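Lay summary. Proteins are chains of building blocks that fold into shapes, and those shapes determine what they do. In this project we predict the shape from the chain. Here is one chain we studied, written as its sequence of building blocks.
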Amino acid sequence: MAGDFDVLVGHPLVDPDVLAACADAGGAAGLGNGSRARGFERVVSDLLPRKLLNRDSKASFDGAFWTGHARAFVEHWNGRGLDDESVDIDQLRAQWSLNPPDPHSFIQLQRAWLASQI
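And here is the predicted shape, written in a compact code that computers can read:
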């Protein structure tokens, strides 16, 4: 998707080198042996407070993405810029009408916005 715009998308937590380092550090059982808290303790226990390392909640940054700017774009979006053979545009519009929409759809919003810029 990004290649259409000469853009490289990188996700550090799925980078082969990062995954290999985690596998080396954790062995067959994994870095945290099935526990997010244990994994973080192994990697950053000297950097973060124990209360933060052992919390049950998960961070969400969706609100920083799904702003008035994103909603305004969606409101005026003409449906172009996405592959309508792999994306159900009507279902995507329905998802984007929710408050908040599923954040898994945000990559499509970024794709549609990029396409609108050319």
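What the prediction tells us: The chain has a mean pLDDT of 86.
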